[in-house]
Amino acid sequence: MNFPDTLFSPPLLWAATCLMVLLLSLAAWRVPWRTLPSGAVSAWAAACVLLAAMWLVKAGLQPGLSFHLLGAAIFTLLMGPELALLALALVLLLQVAAGQLGWLALGLNFCVTLLPAVAVTALALRLAQRYLPAHLFVYVFVNAFLAGGLSLIVAAASGMALLWLQGVYDWPYLLDNALPFYFLLSWSEAFTSGLVLSIMVVYRPQWVRSFDDARYLVR
C-alpha cells in the first residue's frame, strides 16, 4: 500500500510520524552495531536499493490502494526486526526522494503496513523456534514462505482497516476490489521470501541473522 498524505488529517499524520520516530529510535538503540558483519551490512544496503526499485513497480486501483511486494519478511529474517525497521524506513525515504510518496505520509505508511509485517514475521520466527523442530525445512517453509505471505496479508488488512475507519472507502468496496488482489499478491510474497531465504542460507548463511548453522544443520 501507498497512503498519500492528502487522504488523512494532519493530526493523524503527525501522530504516526512521532510514533515512527520513537520506534526507530528504540530500534537503533537496540541494534548491536559493533558486531554487525561488514559484508552483510553492504549486502543489506544493496537490498534496500533493490527493494525501493521493486516498490516502484506497482499497480493501483484508487489512491491508497496500490499493489506491490513488501519484502518485510525477507528484511526481518536477514537483519533482525530492529534493523529491518530501520532499513524499511530508509526504503520509504527513497520513495519520497523518487516522488512516489509525500513526506508527511512516511509515519503512517511505516506504522500501518511495515510495522505489522515485521512484527508478524518476528513473532512467527519466535513461535517456530519454540514449538517446532529445528529443521531447515521448517525455517524455509514456515518462517520464510508462510510468514512472508502472512506478513503481506496482515499489512494489507491493517491498511484496509485504516482506510475504512477514516471513511476513505466503504468496507464492501475494499472486500470486493482490494482484498482478492492482496490474497493473490501474498502468494508472490511468500514465494519470493522462501526463494530468497533458501538461496541465502545455502550460499551466504552468515548474512542471515535469524539462521544458525548449529541449530538448523548440525545434528
UniProtKB/TrEMBL annotation:
Pfam families: CbiM
Keyword terms of this UniProt record: Cell membrane, Membrane, Transmembrane, Transmembrane helix, Transport
Membrane topology type: Multi-pass membrane protein
Main location: membrane
Residue spans crossing the bilayer: 12-31, 37-57, 69-97, 103-125, 137-161, 181-203
Cellular localization per UniProt: Cell membrane
Matching InterPro entries: CbiM/NikMN (IPR002751)
Record protein name field: Energy-coupling factor ABC transporter permease
Source lineage: Bacteria, Pseudomonadati, Pseudomonadota, Betaproteobacteria, Neisseriales
